[in-house]
Amino acid sequence: xxxxxxxxxxxxxxxxxxxxxxxxxxxxxxxxxxxxxxxxxxxxxxxxxxxxxxxxxxxxxxxxxxxxxxxxxxxxxxxxxxxxxxxxxxxxxxxxxxxxxxxxxxxxxxxxxxxxxxxxxxxxxxxxxxxxxxxxxxxxxxxxxxxxxxxxxxxxxxxxxxxxxxxxxxxxxxxxxxxxxxxxxxxxxxxxxxxxxxxxxxxxxxxxxxxxxxxxxxxxxxxxxxxxxxxxxxxxxxxxxxxxxxxxxxxxxxxxxxxxxxxxxxxxxxxxxxxxxxxxxxxxxxxxxxxxxxxxxxxxxxxxxxxxxxxxxxxxxxxxxxxxxxxxxxxxxxxxxxxxxxxxxxxxxxxxxxxxxxxxxxx
Amino acid sequence: xxxxxxxxxxxxxxxxxxxxxxxxxxxxxxxxxxxxxxxxxxxxxxxxxxxxxxxxxxxxxxxxxxxxxxxxxxxxxxxxxxxxxxxxxxxxxxxxxxxxxxxxxxxxxxxxxxxxxxxxxxxxxxxxxxxxxxxxxxxxxxxxxxxxxxxxxxxxxxxxxxxxxxxxxxxxxxxxxxxxxxxxxxxxxxxxxxxxxxxxxxxxxxxxxxxxxxxxxxxxxxxxxxxxxxxxxxxxxxxxxxxxxxxxxxxxxxxxxxxxxxxxxxxxxxxxxxxxxxxxxxxxxxxxxxxxxxxxxxxxxxxxxxxxxxxxxxxxxxxxxxxxxxxxxxxxxxxxxxxxxxxxxxxxxxxxxxxxxxxxxxx
Amino acid sequence: xxxxxxxxxxxxxxxxxxxxxxxxxxxxxxxxxxxxxxxxxxxxxxxxxxxxxxxxxxxxxxxxxxxxxxxxxxxxxxxxxxxxxxxxxxxxxxxxxxxxxxxxxxxxxxxxxxxxxxxxxxxxxxxxxxxxxxxxxxxxxxxxxxxxxxxxxxxxxxxxxxxxxxxxxxxxxxxxxxxxxxxxxxxxxxxxxxxxxxxxxxxxxxxxxxxxxxxxxxxxxxxxxxxxxxxxxxxxxxxxxxxxxxxxxxxxxxxxxxxxxxxxxxxxxxxxxxxxxxxxxxxxxxxxxxxxxxxxxxxxxxxxxxxxxxxxxxxxxxxxxxxxxxxxxxxxxxxxxxxxxxxxxxxxxxxxxxxxxxxxxxx
Lengths: 363, 363, 363
Hints:
3 copies of one chain form a homotrimer.
Chain A: E1 8-9, H1 10-17, E2 20-22, E3 28-29, E4 31-32, E5 42-45, H2 52-55, E6 62-66, H3 69-72, H4 74-79, E7 85-89, H5 92-103, E8 112-113, E9 118-119, E10 124-125, E11 130-131, E12 136-137, E13 142-143, E14 148-149, E15 154-155, E16 160-161, E17 166-167, E18 172-173, E19 178-179, E20 184-185, E21 190-191, E22 198-200, E23 205-207, E24 213-216, E25 221-222, E26 227-228, E27 235-238, E28 243-244, E29 249-250, E30 255-256, E31 261-262, E32 267-268, E33 273-274, E34 279-280, E35 285-286, E36 291-292, E37 297-298, E38 303-304, E39 309-310, E40 315-317, E41 322-323, H6 324-335, H7 337-362
Parallel strand pairs in A: 4-5, 5-6, 6-7, 8-11, 9-12, 10-13, 11-14, 12-15, 13-16, 14-17, 15-18, 16-19, 17-20, 18-21, 19-24, 20-25, 21-26, 24-27, 25-28, 26-29, 27-30, 28-31, 29-32, 30-33, 31-34, 32-35, 33-36, 34-37, 35-38, 36-39, 37-40
Antiparallel strand pairs in A: 1-3, 2-7, 22-23, 40-41
């Protein structure tokens, strides 16, 4: 496909994202690019208006800009007759993401089962499924239409996988796990291992039963090596549209709502609940039976005590978590402890002098 | 097997756990269940007496309750003639775990070597071993009777694995690693990778030799993606009956005793010693050459400095760790820093006024 | 090979490391050993002079000691006529590492492609390459001479791997990733998974494009299960000679310089830069767009805020990071908060008494 006919025109992309073209709508765009790496055929974006003057000097073929930004930069605009074509749009970064999906669709493998894969006779594989080399699919497992199981993916017995999922190399689904549609699991994700529950007796620890399951709802994406343990007796659940980064630990019976985001290396102890639309930083630790109400935001490295309730919509940091304002105030006080110590010493000295003076005069 | 003949009777289960039947000992039980999910054929448990009245209204077929609890709840008991059968036992949760082992034994694969597995001719495989698809067993490796090596498990050269172990998919044992009997390794566990040791020279870092080994004793269970590095020159060791959660890091030459539990994402630096019966929370970090004496408890997210000794039986939290009482007291003071600041300011003002008064009168 | 002809003589080893023999240069050495585990045929080392007297009583056949140390320990030396041969050298530990490389070279597999491996016809495999069982090599991938791809390694399409690399079992390289020469990746390392970037719209999160790449330069070593995400639009890069421990998370577009060391379970958020020769502890968390200047040292469990610049050569600890001196001072003040509280209360009391006295006299 030649450069002249590949990709889409600026006008087509503007229509896709509901934007307005300024400049030559016939320019062809075939890739997205970072601002400082954009050249011929590339589209990039500016989210902040203050960066617009600089952006107009970009070598990009097309620039997504905030609506109305063009008029505000009339001086710059005058110079930009030969600059990039512009698409004005309410949310340039979101538009950029949509255009990237169009111009850079994820590679898909053709429907096929690699001869080295091991698929149980009782497994049900719908149409359009790709099963890569050395993948294994267990007894009675169901794999939905169009799903891609990459090299070395292991699907246990009685697993159910929805349509159009992508499981990257070496993902492991233990027996009985359930995935919705369009779930993306990166390399090494492990779902359904035993939760960490034991009962102590005289000789040591006996396993508390870990015989529940895991349900991962539609449109969830889990990062590399993230672990989601099966419920002890009930179900561990991750809600629709939720995204977890790499190396996250989700313990037994945790309930994560819809559209939650959790950054890397965070760990969530048993039975904790994270409600819809929460935003959780990296390396956060949750004790068991905690609850994060809807829309709360928890800063990276925070610690949430067992049973703690983080109120809806609040922003909390620290170990243990506190409202961000309070966290900042306390940290500022902490940093000034030496000064406070000095003031206290000085004041003691002053009081001692004063006392001496008073007592002298009292004589 | 029909519902009428499957499972065990209440009387049989009571005998197993040394409990006493109250109600119909002939009722058949075929599954354990969570309290609020228990129905026909299910047994559940109540650990705390105060929950007993509610529990007696459960739809469970059988309820494990603390010894003597029945008498204390005589009012409730009167109503419970058609409620669940009861088994009174000293430790209901422990009894529940024992019954779960009986009613829900882990699935075992029949002894077999999958045709896609690659087993070295010099490996010694005892009777009853299962070797799953795409597993690999190295030269001179020994695999004990009844051990289950799941799909994609990799056993290096000269590895020794005891009897009745279960290695879940994609476990990797580097050359020379040694496992005792009944060891359970969850998916992705990696044992025997090089420790992190280098010597700096003019050009950069040279590897300090990482040529020791790893010994995992009987009845150890390691969670998904947990890593145990080989000793630099000596041996990294995890003692009998110890349980590690997911994503734990155990560095070279670490010595972990018997019956230790360590929650997810904790990291233990080189040569640190954790003695028997210690209990370690999640996301704890240990510097190198630290020592946790027997039975100590360390709270989640704590930090233990290099060389630190945590005394036997103490409970410690924080970064760096302190005794829990002290940790709580300091945290309370920390939270009141703004008030302390205000009091100090007020007192300065008061002293200034007083000084002015004294000096005025001194004139 | 008999004990008499295996290994090297003390004189040969001394020549290798530029050291000076004291004692019998003809003694044969065939292994390195830890100090307290050294016996016949073994060489060990003493780095600290104060340990030399004890060391001279070692059962080792040869001892690497600091230059000049022998003279300083003349008393001990007198007794050591039948003790170990000595090699005096400027840096005994470094010399020990060099000798270990010679005596314990890593096992190498002969050049071969295992019949169960799946290698794309378009892949270019140079001479001397080992491709283990169940390994997969994608379309147009290039594998440099002498590289060892262990069991179950997955090399994506268009990946480039340099010479003499060692990829341990189950390493996953996503499409397009690039490795230099002599790169060592331990089991389960995952390079090139999607970075964690989304744009929120009305319905939830849409993926921001994660279509950049990853470059791992020469002589890098990455620990087990460490994850390096691909750039969103640009490239994630790890510089020459850098060493990462196990379970480290490197997010999209991170730039790590040369000869950096990073201990286990540290996480680095997007676009953060860590310059040459930095030393980073374990469980450290970096916010995005932070910068660690050359040679800085960051203590374990520290937290670096987004956008923070850690100055070259400084040593910083804590959450958020502070210079080590300040961190220590503040921690000391923190530990004395109860005392400060008591002093403040006492001073208030004193001032109240004084005020009463003044006011009484004022009457």
